[in-house]
């Protein structure tokens, strides 16, 4: 089972959501290896003065990744967004994704992300400018609206299709909802019925059963997985198996989780360098080991470690003790 955007066909219906500070190259590669069929870069600002910063250069690094390379850009000025799209295509982007879904205050206060949903004329101007500026497919990510009183995803979807957007992702919350409450899928279902371009459903898809329910209810072409992948990056292969067979697969063994985590951390150290890599690794360790009842016993040492070797030694020693029963496994 697959779906396509422009000339590109993806191996399955599972997309890793772009998440700033999370979906860097090492994490994208991890999720690809564990079943994600499509990944998107972290959000890149359209401001040209930020292009040479280390942060932006790392976000633009796709070395060794399978194509197509998908880069997400954010901003609220049509000319700058068009220029950013051209620049990123020149750097190797094969699909440009436009962010109109981020609810973060620091993004919305500069009239970017989901703040744009308040101004459909500006939405149209940005989409038209970006689509005309590049020869590669352009996609769009939105929310259902600015607030529950102004759910305008259907209007924005129609604008997007008219402007030449080739795929649309809809998160089932409004900007005012941020990540509170629960996602709703009725609006996404209506969007899918209203447009001919591929639609991707996003929001609160945290299990195999939920993934199938959302795809069945919305009839979307794919689903996008976000925050749960931080804790359980293997969720993609479990969902893929469930969608193909209707049966749940076994949870990965603790030994498998150890191997994936250690390899991911090594990739972080190599990508960022030891100093920054060790510090970025801490959040991934917290996410992936947080489910272990005895993790709190080693967490202080892991958070205080400043060398890659020390961090890895603590993790490997912890797993060795956990797997051999030296840490009690009862919650």
Short key terms for the protein model shown above:
331 residues, 9-stranded parallel sheet, 14 helices, 11 strands, 2 domains, alpha/beta, single chain, TIM Barrel, two-stranded antiparallel sheet
What would you say about this model in short?
By secondary structure, the protein is of the alpha/beta class.
Descriptive notes:
The protein has two domains: about 5-245, TIM Barrel, CATH 3.20.20; about 255-325. Helices cover about 45% and strands about 15% of the residues. It has about 325 residues and is an alpha/beta fold. The chain starts with a strand and ends in an 8-residue tail after the last helix. The model has no long low-confidence stretch (mean pLDDT about 95). The strands form two sheets. It has a nine-stranded parallel beta sheet with strand order 4-3-11-10-9-8-7-6-5. A two-stranded antiparallel ribbon has the order 1-2. It has helices spanning about 25-35, 55-60, 80-90, 105-110, 120-135, 155-165, 185-195, 210-220, 225-230, 235-245, 255-270, 275-290, 300-305, 310-325, and strands at about 5, 10, 15, 40, 45, 70-75, 95-100, 140-145, 165-170, 200, 220-225. Helix 8 links the parallel strand 10 and strand 11. The longest helix has 19 residues, at about 255-270.
């Amino acid at each position: 089972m697959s779906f396509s955007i422009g000339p590109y066909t993806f191996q399955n219906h599972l997309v890793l959501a772009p998440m700033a500070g999370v979906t860097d190259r090492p994490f994208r590669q991890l999720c690809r290896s564990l079943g994600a069929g499509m990944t998107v870069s972290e959000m890149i600002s359209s401001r040209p003065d930020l292009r040479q910063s280390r942060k932006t250069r790392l976000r633009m690094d796709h070395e060794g990744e399978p194509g197509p390379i998908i880069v997400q850009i954010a901003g609220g000025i049509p000319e700058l967004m068009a220029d950013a799209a051209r620049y990123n295509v020149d750097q190797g982007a094969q699909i440009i994704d436009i962010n109109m879904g981020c609810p973060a205050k620091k993004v919305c206060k500069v009239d970017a992300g989901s703040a744009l949903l308040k101004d459909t004329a500006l939405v149209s101007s940005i989409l038209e400018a970006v689509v005309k500026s590049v020869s590669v497919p352009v996609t769009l990510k939105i929310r259902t609206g600015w607030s529950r009183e102004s759910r305008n995803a259907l209007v924005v979807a129609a604008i997007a299709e008219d402007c030449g957007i080739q795929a649309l992702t809809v998160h089932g919350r409004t900007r005012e909802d941020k990540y509170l409450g629960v996602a709703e899928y009725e609006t996404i279902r209506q969007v899918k019925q209203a447009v001919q371009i591929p639609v991707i459903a996003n929001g609160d898809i945290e299990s195999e059963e939920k993934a199938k329910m959302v795809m069945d209810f919305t009839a979307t072409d794919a689903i996008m997985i976000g925050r749960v992948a931080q804790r359980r990056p293997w969720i993609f292969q479990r969902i893929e198996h469930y969608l193909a067979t209707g049966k749940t697969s076994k949870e990965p063994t603790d030994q498998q989780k150890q191997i994936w985590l250690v390899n991911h951390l090594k990739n972080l150290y190599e990508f960022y360098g030891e100093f920054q890599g060790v510090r970025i690794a801490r959040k991934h360790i917290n996410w992936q080991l947080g489910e272990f009842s005895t993790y709190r016993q080693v967490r202080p040492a892991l958070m205080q470690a400043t060398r890659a070797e020390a961090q890895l030694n603590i993790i490997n020693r912890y797993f060795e003790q956990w797997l051999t029963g030296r840490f009690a496994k009862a919650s």
